[in-house]
Amino acid sequence: MKNTNKSKSLDQIKKIIKEQKQARKEDDKITLTVSSGTCGQARGSMEVIDSLKETIEQKQLEDKVRVKVTGCHGFCEAEPNIIFQPDNIFYQHVKPKHSKDIIEKTALNKEILDQLLYTDPSTNEKAKKDEDISFYTKQERLVLGDNVLIDPTDINDYFSIGGYNSLLKTLETLNPEQVINTVKSSGIRGRGGAGFPTGIKWEFTRKAKSDEKYIICNADEGDPGAYMDRSLMEGNPHRVLEGMIIGAYAIGANQGFIYIRDEYPLALKNITLAIQQAKEFGLLGQNILDTGFGLEINIVKGAGAFVCGEETALIASVEGKVGEPKQRPPFPAVKGLWKKPTNINNVETWGNIPLIIEKGADWYSQIGTKDSKGTKIFSLVGKINNTGLVEVPMGITLREIIFDIGGGIPEGKKFKAVQTGGPSGGCLPAEKLDLPIDYESLTEAGSIMGSGGMIVMDENTCMVDVAKYFLNFLRDESCGKCLSCREGTQRMWEIVNKITEGNGKKGDIELLEELAYAVKDASMCGLGQTAANPVLSTLRYFRDEYEAHVVDKKCPAGVCKDLIRYIIIEDKCTGCMACIKPCPEDAITGELKKVHTLDENKCIRCGACYEACKFDAIKIE
Amino acid sequence: MNVQTDKVKSFINKYNCKQSALIAILQEIQAEYNYLPKNALIYVSQQLHIPLIDIIGVATFYSAFSLEPKGEHTVKVCMGTACHVRGGPKILEEFERRLEIESGHTTDDKQFSLDTVACLECCAIGPVVVVDENYHAQTSIRNVDTILKKYRKKEKKNEEHQ
Ligand SMILES: Cc1cc2nc3c(=O)[nH]c(=O)nc-3n(C[C@H](O)[C@H](O)[C@H](O)COP(=O)(O)O)c2cc1C
Ligand code: SF4
Ligand code: SF4
Ligand code: SF4
Ligand code: FES
Ligand code: FES
Rg for chain A (alpha carbons), in Å? Predict the structure, then answer.
């Protein structure tokens, strides 16, 4: 790294922010922002970027058009996508071959390329701008919205949208108590799962007596199917840092850690760079902007264990040990990392802080419901048309998220359930679609807010199989310290597995329920305490599906292998032979243009023939 | 595998021989050798003054570490919730059949290791499979063989070049 003589004072940073803002205002270049988070890159955004840049160079248009590589725009379904600035034209599924037209026709001549526009699946209408797309209209992208505007690898770009202004405001006009009071009265609660009021947690750590205090950013994001933290770290790392610096100032911590999931290379790269840049500008380090307050932030890479997202296990992991949770109290606020007071918050929680400081507690607390304030980011995935990250005000209904924003279920299938809260959460049925969501309402309904995973399931999803899936995950991830959790998740999995294999007996469901409550009550950390939720919620709303497995030995959704069979519908089979080769067991025989036969005794129910048949002639029963 | 003490030593030095950096040091070793060679762990144990049994404890607790050498190519099949409801398990089974190994293992010819992961963070294009660094989107049972062939072929080509 370069030396730190670039380090600035408060006034100098203020000046830089002003200049950068002005420069953005005066900027008359057409900017093509290409969504390029992990998910965009997996779908070829880098190739698109290269070819756009090449086209601009070839045509010598560098002073008219620029390409900006941004973090993700949240609309996974439409990746790779481009949003034009200042016009907000939205192009989806862009390929390198479109570059020439995009530059020549749209960028230079405002001509719209119809084939790259998003088409609404329900109305068949084409949308020209991001604000015309139903996926975006009902969202309130207060935290994620800036992803579109900035190059996450350039601190100046963050300055140009007023970034670090909240930190300046804090250092100049607020004392630590005032910051804590603002956060308290904003009503924000932790976005990592449990929903503990953030301001109160900060106050605990501030009041704990110690020569040394720490803050930690929890970026472990272990819920399979949730990725909002990754998106924020990748697309707007300075925002998270800004939140952390403000928090450290309020709490009185001089050392911070970011515990980041092992599988997040791009987030790791961007946050590492952001720390470096913040240091160069004097926004991090021994003496921040000459105020006498100092904070160093280090990065710790997780090593792949779900339980390490739990705060006490995370602390053990930062200390280099096996990530086993500890009994609380003492809470980390009193005795945390290296036995010193430690404040842990989730990435999204930290990311909300600059907003609260900027707009004030009153403004913030008007968003949301009585006890849940602000917005929450969800990853809307599974059997849903518009897959992506959605940021919505607390209190919105599940129906609005799934049908208005998410565009409903693909292929005209029927909605069956939505799973929130990951392995600690539950599955909610259609009757709960009009539930306004906040921390309490979700808990009451048998699920939890969790970190924001929202997995939509349709008629082809088996709820017993889903319960088995989560139990399998949990028995693997249980650290094994408590007998109830270690043995309980294993035993529950065995029972559910037996049921899905068609060997369920009368009384199994009741036994499962009993076990579930035992695990809930006797386990030490959140993993065990909530491990029963997937089972209990599916039992509560989909008991008939369990019974169909146990009593009728049927899997109504056609998922559980031992309870289904594949058959050929004679009337529909054209004898095309496409199903013969894929079958690993040579179970299908037949001649060209003659009805084929499937030998059920040989069939291992792999589903390959079902996938191969273009005539819907193979049916699951 | 030939483990160079110098390399391992440099990892340890990078973290000032701190005990709390054990996980970070193991991550460096894993990245270098694709697994944790036994003599590297013994060396770390001596240098950091941590009993070997505790190091093995850490190494087996976290899924990022492997005590066995990995194959030439690593196939990771997403077992996240979103991919699960879109048929991920069927894809995994097909890989297991084609490679004749169970997930978590390596083929006898050391060409492929098969693993599952919790979520590859691109749920929109599930079921997702990553081979080495390459993403394969919306995989189907039929794709599995095609995917494997691609990497097998590369292998052969390389041999021809040599
Ligand atoms: C098993 C388990 C896993 C957890 N995983 C995460 C996680 O991945 N990310 C996270 O922020 N919090 C996670 N938590 C919650 C943390 O323990 C802690 O409450 C949170 O980081 C506090 O931050 P917040 O108040 O900002 O939400 C997990 C909790 C449990 C019990
Ligand atoms: S509840 Fe489970 S994961 Fe938590 S400490 Fe006990 S055994 Fe470990
Ligand atoms: S389900 Fe699989 S094994 Fe059974 S007939 Fe079809 S392809 Fe063959
Ligand atoms: S693929 Fe379908 S239509 Fe073709 S032979 Fe098989 S069952 Fe018949
Ligand atoms: S667009 Fe898919 S994760 Fe952001
Ligand atoms: S669940 Fe497979 S990529 Fe997320």
Answer: 27
Distance from residue A481's CA to the centre of ligand 2 (Å): 5
Give the whole-angstrom CA distance, residue A251 versus residue A37.
32
Nearest of A13, A604, A597, A1 to residue A281 by alpha carbon: A13
Cβ(A412)–Cβ(A401) under 8 Å?
no
- C-alpha span between A174 and A186 (Å, rounded): 15
Rounded to a whole number of angstroms, the distance from the CA of A55 to the nearest CA of chain B is: 26
Closest alpha carbon to B29 in B2, B71, B72, B65: B65
B61 to A322: CB separation less than 8 angstroms, yes or no: yes
Sign of CA dihedral A320, A324, A329, A333: positive
Task: Examine residue A121 and say whether the peptide bond preceding it is cis (omega within 30 degrees of 0).
Answer: no
**Of B126 and A104, the one with more pLDDT:** A104
Contact by Cβ (8 Å): A467, A545? no
Tens digits of residue pLDDT in A45-102: 999 999 999 999 999 999 999 999 999 999 999 999 999 988 999 999 999 999 999 9
Sort out which chain A residues have CB atoms less than 8 A from B88's CB and list them: none
Whether A291 and A17 have beta carbons less than 8 Å apart is answered as: no
Residues facing B85 on adjacent strands: none
pLDDT of residue B4: 80
Residues with C-beta less than 6 Å from any ligand 3 atom: A 566, 582-585, 587-588, 598, 603-609
Interface of A with B in 419-458 (CB under 8 A): 419, 422, 453, 455, 457
Question: From the CA of A522, which ligand is nearest?
Answer: 2
> According to the model, what pLDDT value does residue A429 have?
98
Residue ranges covered by each domain of chain A: 13-137, 155-365, 375-458, 463-552, 565-621
As a whole number, mean pLDDT of residues B89-112 equals 94
CATH code of domain A375-458 = 3.10.20.600
Q: Locate the chain B residue with the closest alpha carbon to A76.
A: B124
Give contacts of A 237-266 with B, CB under 8 A: 262-264
pLDDT band at B158 (very low <50, low <70, confident <90, very high): low
CATH numbers and ranges of domains, chain B: 5-61 (no CATH), 73-161 (3.40.30.10)
CATH for A155-365 is: 3.40.50.11540
Ligand 1 atom with the shortest distance to the CA of A313: 17
How close is the Cα of B88 to the center of ligand 6, in Å? Answer: 9
Task: Give residues with Cβ within 8 angstroms of A413, minimum separation 6.
Answer: A383, A458, A459, A460
| Nearest listed ligand to the Cα of residue A613 | 4
pLDDT tens-digit map of A175-204:
999 999 999 999 999 999 889 999 999 999
Binning pLDDT at 50, 70 and 90, where does residue B2 land?
low
- The answer, for B140 touching chain A at a CB cutoff of 8 Å, is yes
Fold of A13-137: Glutaredoxin (3.40.30)
Q: Give every residue of chain A whose pLDDT is below 70, as ranges.
A: 1-7
User: What integer pLDDT is reported at residue A120 of this predicted model?
Assistant: 87
Q: Does B96 touch chain A (CB under 8 A)?
A: no
**Which of A38, A47, A381 to probe the B interface (max B CBs under 10 A)?**
A381
SS3 A344: strand
Instruction: Name the residue among B24, B93, B118 with its Cβ closest to that of A301.
Output: B24
Instruction: Provide, as residue numbers in chain A, all residues whose Cβ is less than 8 Å from the Cβ of B22.
Output: 320-321
Name the pLDDT band for B120 (thresholds 50, 70, 90). Answer: confident
Contact B119/A608, CB-based, under 8 Å? no
Which residue from B minimizes the CA distance to A419?
Answer: B81
Whether B142 has a pLDDT exceeding 90, the answer reads no
Nearest CA in chain A to B94: A606
User: A565-621 in CATH: which number?
Assistant: 3.30.70.20
